[in-house]
Write a structure and sequence with these properties.
The chain is of the alpha/beta class and about 350 residues long. It folds into two domains: about 100 residues, Ribosomal Protein S8, Chain: A, domain 1 (2-Layer Sandwich); about 210 residues, Rossmann fold (3-Layer(aba) Sandwich). The chain has twelve helices and eleven strands. Strands 8-7-9-10-6-11 form a six-stranded parallel beta sheet. It has a three-stranded antiparallel beta sheet with strand order 1-3-2, covered by helices on one side. It has a two-stranded antiparallel sheet with strand order 4-5. A hairpin with a 2-residue loop joins β2 and β3.
């Protein structure tokens, strides 16, 4: 199945001349009109670089000066020049983009090839992106970039890891973009209807009213990447289908993007049933957090089993996320880290 096409351009940006490092690095920018957005209101983006990289940064006109260790200054240069290129392409940047650019630059600098070539050979890493009619979403961690690239390249992708890493949101964004571009005819979103450690009893209303509470996170992601009228029209016509896992039995889903969220709450038999629903010209995404299993005592999760059994199967990828990939507020990352220490 043909996926979204990703730009492979990784242009080499201007690097300082080969002269002894004197504790400061001067980086000029050509277009003064873009510099204000690059630096942020009251130079807020420079402040983020200072806090994350332990440097001092100052701006005079269209020139930014970094002071600190050579490696940190070079990382700051890479981040700022990469963001400048995005602004030049007409993209908007915010605090999340600064954080994401820093994460990508750090990962690039830690790569063996970059370590051999030295700090001054760094290029601005190309974060993967997916565009819907409503917005452009840019990966904020290297794992998110790997995830989007895997979604494009493979027919079945497993994504595992803690909450707040973008597993569900990026999958929904990719699926919505595929639907809008005509790459897929249908978008099918599913979750197991398992309650998180409490009993809600019988819920009133028709079938949609009963299952909506379990599927609300998928609705939230959809409305964030598509216009509300597009979502409602898609649901009414069946182009967008949101259903509990139990409704998948006996179906063959072709020409579709199929997402299973909270997959850690599937039993092994349910997981096998779901995975064998994939039909011709379809892609399937299975995401979950193996540390948050809400199945009744004595029942085993099918997510870890499936990842292990299928790890060497052609056409399948597994992207593991960790606590370092959490992109919600820093408090969430600290909570996840505390729970991981207890394990």
């Amino acid at each position: 199945m043909t996926g979204l096409r990703q730009s492979s351009r990784t242009s080499e940006l201007q690097t300082p001349s080969a002269q002894p490092f004197d504790g400061s690095l001067v980086v000029p920018f050509e277009d003064n009109r873009l510099v204000a957005d690059l630096l942020g209101e009251y130079d807020a983006n420079l402040v983020m670089l200072e806090e994350h990289l332990g440097i001092e940064a100052s701006a005079h006109g269209n020139v930014v000066t970094f002071r600190g260790s050579q490696q940190s200054c070079e990382l700051a240069r890479v981040v700022l020049q990469g963001l400048y290129e995005r602004l030049a392409r007409g993209e908007a940047i915010g605090p999340g983009d600064i954080d994401g650019a820093i994460r990508h630059a750090r990962a690039a600098s830690a790569a063996p090839a970059q370590a051999e070539s030295g700090a001054r050979g760094l290029r601005p890493p190309e974060a993967a992106q997916v565009r819907t009619r409503k917005r452009l979403i840019t990966a904020r961690t290297p794992a998110q970039s790997a995830y989007l690239n895997a979604l494009e390249a493979q027919d079945l992708v497993f994504a595992t890891g803690p909450a707040g890493t973008g597993k569900t949101y990026l999958a929904v964004a990719f699926a919505a973009a595929s639907l809008e571009r005509g790459i897929a005819d249908r978008l099918i979103l599913s979750r197991p209807a398992v309650e998180a450690g409490e009993r809600l009893g019988f819920l009133p209303g028709d079938m949609r009213d009963k299952v909506d509470p379990y599927l609300r996170p998928l609705y939230d992601a959809l409305y964030d990447v598509l216009a509300p009228e597009r979502v409602e029209r898609g649901i009414e016509t069946g182009i967008i289908e949101i259903a509990p896992l139990a409704f998948m039995r006996g179906r063959t889903l072709s020409n579709s993007i199929i997402l299973l969220d909270e997959a850690q709450n599937c039993t092994p038999m349910q997981m096998k049933m779901f995975l064998t629903r994939i039909g011709e010209d379809s892609k399937m995404v299975v995401s979950g957090d193996p540390t948050q299993i809400d199945l009744p005592p004595g029942q085993h999760s099918g997510l870890d089993e499936a990842v292990t059994l299928l790890k060497d199967v052609e056409g399948i990828a597994h992207v593991p996320f960790t606590q370092s990939d959490v992109v919600r507020r820093p408090l969430v990352s600290r909570i996840v880290a505390a729970y991981e220490k207890r394990r």
